[in-house]
Amino acid sequence: MLLQNLTELRELYLDGVDISAQGSEWCQAISSSLPELRILSLRGCSLSGPLHPSLSKLHFLSVVQLDGNSISSTLPNFFANFSYLITLSLIECGLQGSVPKIIFQIPTLEILDLSFNVELTGTIPQFHRNASLRTISLQSTNFSGPLPNSIGNISMLSKIDLRHCGFTGPIPSTMVTLTGLIHVDLSWNFFNGSIPPFYMSKKLQSLLLSGNSLSGSIPQSLFSLPSLETLRLSYNQLSGRLYEFPTLHFSSIVVLDLSSNRLEGQIPESFFTLESLDTLDLSHNFFNGTVELEKFQRLSNLTVLDLSYNNLSVDTSITNTSLSTFPQLFMLALASCNLQNFSDLQNLHNLGFLDLSNNRITGEVPNWIWEIGNGALRSLNLSLNLLVGLQKPYHIPNRFDVLDLHSNLLQVIDLSVNKLCGTIPPCLAKQLVNDYGRYRFFSGDQNYWGTVIVIVKGAEREFVKILTIFTVIDFSCNNFQGEIPDAIGDLRSLYTLNISHNTFTGTIPKALDSFKGNTGLCDFPLNISCRHTGKIDNVPPSNPYRKDEAINWDYVSVAVGYVVGLGSILWLLFFCRSFRHKFNDQLTKFLKRYLTPKTGEKDIEKECKEDAKLLMRMLFVFCQKSMMQ
């Protein structure tokens, strides 16, 4: 074997080598061949367990690193017998059962990392004053119980990571005395009580306490720690006001997340002096007052800003043009911030995510919004506003991952000739299903909406003073796929639906007829039975609006027939007097029959004749202009 002639070897690093050996095999081979071994590092070697007792013969071991193997057994007691053990790292090894408390009390142990062993249980015991631990990492294990007050005895402790465990009780106040702390992650446990001030931890860089049941106020001293870079206190029950704190010119706070608490009052002006700030999340609290978005421009490194769901009124107007307009901002969330317009947001050059939902923004979505971020915008949420349409011209970029417009006052949706893909969510169709009861109180012109130009079957149509209860949907010439949601067939006020030239498959809902270019569709009104189609693998034709595509002679023949028929009728009307009189009489009868009010009017026949003559004059004018051209 490879190790037989290496009896003097003291350090063995075989990380990433595929050994694929059983526990008894590799443990006995190492212990018998390498009696002087100090460092054993076999991370990611496809080793199996259990850890054989023969390893206990390696009396000089100081470092054991077996991360990423399938030990799948309990942690043996014999590690406590290693007099020189400094590092014990068994990350993601499938360890099971309860960890012996004596492991935490090894006098020489400095690094203990048992993270990502989800079936590993245990509690943290009391610590002696001579404990040497610098790192305790139990992330994503099933450890539980309280943290002992004696944790303050570990004077050398610099990192403690207990994220995603089951610890309970208060955070020991004795942790304040740990002056060497650098990283503290106690997030997503069941800790309660108040937050220790950590005012003596001048080296502290990360304090992560999210996802607990912590209450009380936030210690003001945390914001003044000279080395603090990340402070995450979200998803707790913290309350009270945030007061101004001494500003440090060299403040190093990069991430500040106080979201989902019960904080109130105004946002401290001190926050606007944190020049290194990259992420600021104050959402889902009770902050109040008016805050000018312009103030955040001082934070030139800011990439994430979330002020959503407070009692704030955000003023988005920019008055000081000398300041750069958020040069690094990538995410801006201002949901429920009492916004009424889109003003001064078009200059966010690097924006990728924009949430303006649940506000009072009225009018149309401006066409410049699609160019926000210079091509970086991927998610746009404008739901729960008072928007009535989309300003044209617009072209939704194909880079969009999320476009949320639900719960507005939209009546016309025209997304044709884009590069949108994926399926049409059933929830979108359901949002469009009209409830006539909403309009029962409308009167006069309140249920009309100006003039709308929509492309219907390739031709522009202008709807003048259309009823707002009508719905127009145009998803044509995209790359939508899957089945057409049944809810679209339930649109009781649907006036126009165009979903042609996509890749839809399946059954066509009733009352839909604009389905050309979707070769996977079947059933009525097509002459293709779904029972005989089998799997649809056909590729639909390309976008019909592309200039380089071949001529479609079906369209040409239909157009020629239409022109010949219409031309014949117009020729007879123009040159044949007898035909013209008969046509006039028939048109008068038609108007009289269908336009007579139920109450009746004496002069209806006279009015209908005048209307018929007016229509004839219009036809003559049309013919004359056509001949002149």
Task: Reconstruct the topology from this structure.
Layout: E1 11-13, H1 23-33, E2 39-41, E3 63-65, E4 87-89, E5 96-98, E6 111-113, E7 119-122, E8 135-137, E9 142-145, E10 159-161, E11 166-170, E12 183-185, E13 190-193, E14 206-208, E15 213-216, E16 230-232, E17 237-241, E18 255-257, E19 262-265, E20 279-281, E21 286-292, E22 304-306, E23 311-315, E24 331-333, E25 353-355, E26 362-365, E27 379-381, E28 386-390, E29 402-404, E30 412-414, E31 421-422, H2 426-432, E32 448-456, E33 459-467, E34 471-474, E35 479-482, E36 494-498, E37 503-507, E38 520-522, H3 553-575, H4 577-595, H5 604-628
Parallel strand pairs: 1-2, 2-3, 3-4, 4-6, 5-7, 6-8, 7-9, 8-10, 9-11, 10-12, 11-13, 12-14, 13-15, 14-16, 15-17, 16-18, 17-19, 18-20, 19-21, 20-22, 21-23, 22-24, 24-25, 25-27, 26-28, 27-29, 30-34, 31-35, 34-36, 35-37, 37-38
Antiparallel strand pairs: 32-33
Helix pairs in contact: 3-4, 4-5
Helical content class: 10-25%
Which sheet architecture does the biggest sheet show? 17 strands, parallel
Q: Got a strand count?
A: 38
The low-confidence parts are: 430-454, 462-470, 535-550, 597-602, 625-629
Radius of gyration: 37 Å
- Summed up, the helix count is 5
Percentage of residues in DSSP E strands: 15-25%
What coarse outline follows from CA principal-axis ratios? elongated
Counting helices, strands and paired strands, the structural category is alpha/beta
Average pLDDT level: 79
**CA distance, first residue to last residue:** 98 Å
Subcellular location: Membrane
Pfam family, one: LRR_1
Protein name: Receptor-like protein 34
InterPro entries: Leu-rich_rpt, Leu-rich_rpt_typical-subtyp, LRR_dom_sf
